[in-house]
Amino acid sequence: MAMASSKKNKTARKIGFYTGLIALLVVSLFPFFIMLMTSFKNSKEAVATDPTFFPKDWTFQHYLDIFNPDIFPFLAYFKNSLTVALTAALLSVLIGIFGAYALSKLNFIGKTTINASFYTVYMLSGILLVVPLFKIISGLGLYDTKTALIITMIVQTLPTSIFMLKSYFDTIPDDLEEAAMIDGLNRIQIIFYIIIPLALSGIISVFVYSFMVAWNDYLFASIFLSDSVNFTLPIGLNALFSTPDYIWGRMMAASLITALPVVAMYAISEHFIKGNVTEGGVKG
Amino acid sequence: MKNRGKSDMKLAMVLLFPSVFLVLLLVAYPMISNIKISFFDLPINPRLDATFVGLKNYTDILTDVEFIKSLGITVLYMILAVAGSTALGLAVAIFFNRPFKFRKAARSLIILSYVTPSISLVFAWKYMFNNGYGVINHLGVDVFHLFDKAPLWFDNPVSSFILVVLFAIWRYFPYAFISFLAILQTVDSSLYEAAEIDGASTWEKFKSVTIPAIMPVLITIITLRSIWLFYMFTDVYLLTNKVNIIGIYLYETAFAFNDLGKAASISVILFIILSIVIIASRKRVKFNGNG
To answer: With A149 labelled, which of A18, A25, A69, A93 sits at a CA distance of 20 to 30 A?
Structure first.
């Protein structure tokens, strides 16, 4: 009798739990659902005053349209975003590996000072620097170039890269390096043959983090870029939004494709990384 | 590796050079440059000369009602969004802190709003909250009768403010959720069992076991999220032009009104506020597992 009721109780609790979970997921994912469904609706249905959840007539036209350069400059923006984010992330990781190695494994004077200043930079928001950065970038003749955006994105992500990498490097025992040195490897070889392979999962997560920051950036792109040939996705799409003839289905299709690279990267990196990008205090 | 002090110094300098150079050029120098610019009336056109105006930019700013108002809106936005996203993140983490089927998949889905680029999310929200054909007003007015009259989400300062706070809570709670879940999984379950034997209620267990265990993470999350939301620009700027938070006020002073000197003086004032927070938090905030 008692057993039966406790079993019933357990089932009831289980149902309650899963109901809660589903409710949570519905609220959390609702905007994504709307985005996806709208991308398959025709222009008329998307602006009906009696909105539908699922499209009455499914259309794939918006996906064809955004990949057609005559209709929509999406591909050009996508390419620009990819150039900026890939270059910035690669350089941020490379520079970060060198810096993190020094801070993790070497003894030198001024280490604490450098640590403390990177900590301050980590908390410093880009918005505080927009005025002088605008002047400096113009002064260097880099206004309206992707290079301006790339170097700004490297600096924006560098302190986090260094601290994340440092915490991975800290877990690699010194004995390994000493053994490698006895085998005749120098420090630079040690970085490439020992440290990088051992900290690969950390390096990938730093790459993903840096890529995401650069891919997301709206602020600096809007300050540094003026010719639409150079536009990245955030400013390009936002500029299109301001025109009166935007089509919701098309914008939603573009939004989804814009989100795809970072979500895919995140999902892949999560698979083989224990402490993933959002664990620990990553800026965002 | 204690005996290699000398050779380490040289190598460390080489390895750190790119990082230090970039940070000096694009963070430290701009920060100092900010201070200099803040004493000038600087036109955006580089061919025009800057005129020294002393403290005028500062007196202008500090007596500007719009600046004070913007500061107030920002603080309110920050408090509400930090409290909301942290509390929700903690609640969801506690909810997830048990074994169940699809846990990993559910966790990944929850994180989606945090990893997706702002621009995509903003478009979805603009569409959902549209005055005429948005699904939120349709559900709220016609289906669930939550409001008598559809709020004009993007045209009214109060409803726009509610909108940006909701957006921030929804977008940033997964960050708190993941951090809390990670720390909760390290809490020894025997502590809960012991409390249960002592006859502790759920609330008492939360107060005496959960809260002390998550305290370091809680402090870190609140501090970092507060700083990031205080300097928020993109999310709010893309969503609505009715919520004039300080990041937008600064951006528009510089690039809409072309008053770089005044914008620089705002940056300096904000930097001073930030420095106080950093100094106060340095001892207590642990980030990335090292300080």
So the answer is: A69
